[in-house]
Amino acid sequence: MPFQPVAGLFGSDVPAATGLQTVRDPYTGQDVYVVPRLQPDWAVLHVQEADAAGNARIYGSVFWDRIMSRAARGVILTAERIVPTEELAQRPELTVIPSLLVRAVVEAPGGARPCSCASEYDIDRAGVEAYLRACSDPAALEAYLAGEDQALREPDRVAAATSSPGSRAVRPVMQGGV
Q1: Which of 8, 79, 86, 93 is the most buried (most CB within 10 A)?
Q2: 42-121+154-175 has which fold?
Q3: 90: which strand partners?
Q4: If residue 123 lies in a helix (H) or strand (E), which one and from where to where?
Q5: Angle at 175 between CA 174 and CA 178, to 5 degrees
Q6: Sequence-ordered strand ranges (E) for 65-115
Q7: Which of 94, 71, 72, 75 is nearest to 83 (CA)?
């Protein structure tokens, strides 16, 4: 849908300040303000399982990821595991993001950290707090990200993240243009 109706704007300065348009409500015949749809260029989403083609399963709440995958012009998936397409085909109803929306897939065990990944790991509250503190200062954020990047490259961390059967280090699996 190219727009979304929004209630409660008549009598405010918001429509004039933002250039919002009105349409006639087909049920009441009254005018209603509408806002244009959001369409980001990219949605970068982390999932538990994906195949190399870009079909993805999300275990847990799928609400926002499903919506973002449909709103964006292209999707980049990071996945805890890359699984054979045949495995996804056994239960196709569990595929939340179809490959036709996906432009790249990266196997990235632990890729949602410091946030959680349902059934894989919980939120790292200290990690989130460190990130939020770093966000207030560009130099601090750069140092935080460099530290996280270095930590991800440590042999013990890579071994832990890739120790499950069939796992490999972070690597692109499929790429394509938008």
Answers
A1: 79
A2: Glutaconate Coenzyme A-transferase (3.40.1080)
A3: none
A4: none
A5: 140
A6: 74-82, 95-97, 102-107
A7: 94
Among 98-107, 121-130, 166-175, the range scoring the smallest mean pLDDT is: 166-175
Is pLDDT at 162 greater than 80 in this prediction? no
Residues 6+ apart with CB under 8 A from 57: 47, 48, 49, 50, 88, 94, 95, 96
Q: Which two tokens stand for residue 80?
A: 């805890």
In this structure, what token pair is assigned to residue 153? Answer: 């490259």
Any alpha helices (H) in the chain, and if so which ranges? 14-18, 63-71, 85-89, 125-134, 138-153, 155-161
Specify whether the CB–CB gap between 71 and 37 falls below 8 A. Answer: yes
Question: Given the structure tokens 């071994």, which residue do they identify?
Answer: 159
Domain ranges of the chain: 3-36, 42-121+154-175
Q: Could you identify the residue written with the tokens 């990130």?
A: 131
